[in-house]
Amino acid sequence: MTLLDGKRVAGEVRARIQTNARELTEQTGIVPGLAVILVGDDPASATYVKNKEKACAEVGFYSEVYRLAAGTTQDALLQLIDRLNADDKIHGILVQLPLPKQIDETCVIQKIAPEKDVDAFGFASVGKIMIGSFDFLPCTPAGVMELLSAYSIDPCGKHAVVIGRSNIVGKPQAMLLMHQNATVTICHSRTRDLAHYTQDADILVVAVGKAGFLTADMVKDGAVVIDVGMNRNAEGKLCGDVDFAAVAPKCSYITPVPGGVGPMTITMLLQNTLTAARNRAKSE
Ligand code: GUN
Q1: How far is the CA of 43 from the centre of ligand 1 (A)?
Q2: Does the pLDDT at position 234 exceed 90?
């Protein structure tokens, strides 16, 4: 069993992004800039946003973070996005999800200019991903693909099973695996006899949000297991969706939590922000 070391791979990719960003600045004067908007005080979201801000600083990006009160109106948020859409210092805009109940997420996401949609959640980005011709890939699924590639794990011809059908992870993950010629099965909370599918998986991506969800009996010997989960166990310790101690011995490769998919996600956000800044430079 080999651990898929997201921390190491993320470090390597971030070093490359930093070099490329410096070159872009030398050639064009453009410093990649990211605006992150957090509405409310969900502690997990606050941590994610802080990590994004820190990652930007580490690779020399410009960043702005807007921490708005939980009672912020949808109109005020849309106005801020409008302003950021027109701001030349900002190449990427990210609205941290989930948003408070009074705000319509879909409406807010669509307000982000497509050329600044570094989360790749907008209609234009999603459509492009479906077709296979894109500027931005959603960060978590893209991070998973980058991690597979770093360990020369080729999805071509393999049976990839994705558990979870969210717009952020499950659906785009399935699409990216299919673009790389995997045969993909998407499972979800209504799937009957889930183990029937997972036991046949060569590559298994688990994005459920429940600690210990994937147990050893659900996994084929030699499978590649990717754990997208980010949960806290009873002792408050960060853990994934996979019963790691029992599942790991059966795997050829497995991601740890923390230190697997997590560091790759923010790395792909930096990559998308660099792409947006480069596209901006080309359009000038
Ligand atoms: N909340 C959980 N994951 C994400 C993500 O990838 N992007 C945003 N904007 N919010 C999230």
Answers
A1: 14
A2: no
